[in-house]
# Entry
Amino acid sequence: MKTQRKTNASIPLRTPYEYRPLEPSIYPVLSIRAEYAEEIVLGMKEEEYRTWKPLRLGPIALHACGRESYPRAPAGHILGIMDIVAVEGTEGDYS
# Structure
């Protein structure tokens, strides 16, 4: 008898824009210095400023970069998945 291989189920994630299943581990990545990534994880920082505009809204993996690690943000690790829910600003100054 042939055994069936289990597949990962899609992870449902609700955004203000749509309700869709997401494939596990297939996300764009945003690298942020570990000290600021820790603030995002703790909920102390809700905005991130960039000179470029993201291509899409929705889920993105949060990567802690840099040389120094913090208790909740070890450098070089993906900390979790967050949602980009809105982009504001003008050319070269987005939040």
User: Anything to note?
Assistant: The radius of gyration is 16 Å.
